[in-house]
Design a protein that fits this description.
Blueprint lengths: L2 H14 L9 E6 L2 E5 L13 E5 L13 H10 L4 E5 L2 H7 L4 E2 L4 H6 L3 E4 L8 H10 L5 E4 L3 E6 L2 H22 L2
């Protein structure tokens, strides 16, 4: 499957699983010195190839077409070995981020696949230099991090793995909230 088709598929799954609302979240894939990323305001559940822009790993004029979270995606690619990044807004995990500084799943699947998720704080929790630095630094050691009150960032070797981890994170957060209370 080509890169744009992979991103379209991932967007559909994220939306159908309620991991993003209509215009939230973003998806990217790195291929060599190029980043393929969803555009600002793109509806992930209904992406077309025109909703995905190809940009350089270094800043360029085309950057303004890309998602506002490009600063974070680019920094992740520059500082880690990631080949794919998903930024989502999983409701249960975001809700937990208001109360926790790290998330440790209590279910067996979560203990196996998720293990521990750092939750970081930022004065401006979306598309800021601070978020780019904190998220990319955290993702040097982890595959998942959550920005308190905002959403998750997942990096992986491929988009399907990033999608699976994003879905698993929300599943584990939901179980945690059912067992531990809201």
């Amino acid at each position: 499957m080509d890169i744009k088709r992979q991103i379209i598929f991932a967007g559909e799954v994220l939306y159908k699983e309620n991991l993003v609302n209509s215009h939230a979240g973003n998806i990217s894939i790195r291929e060599n010195d190029k980043i393929y990323i969803t555009k600002t305001g793109a509806m992930l559940g209904y992406l077309t190839e025109n909703d995905i822009v190809e940009i350089d790993i270094n800043p360029s004029e085309k950057d303004k077409e890309a998602s506002s979270e490009l600063i974070v995606h680019r920094r992740i690619y520059q500082k880690t070995n990631a080949k794919a990044v998903i930024h989502a807004h999983p409701v249960n995990m975001v809700a937990l981020s208001f109360k926790l500084n790290r998330f440790v799943p209590i279910d067996s699947e979560g203990k196996l696949f998720i293990k521990e998720v750092p939750i970081i704080e930022a004065k401006i929790p979306s598309a800021s230099e601070e978020v780019a630095e904190k998220v990319s630094s955290t993702l040097k050691e982890y595959d998942i991090t959550v920005v308190k009150t905002h959403g998750s960032f997942v990096k992986a070797d491929n988009l399907i793995t990033a999608l699976n981890l994003t879905s698993d994170l929300e599943y584990c957060a939901k179980i945690y909230r059912y067992v531990m209370g809201p």
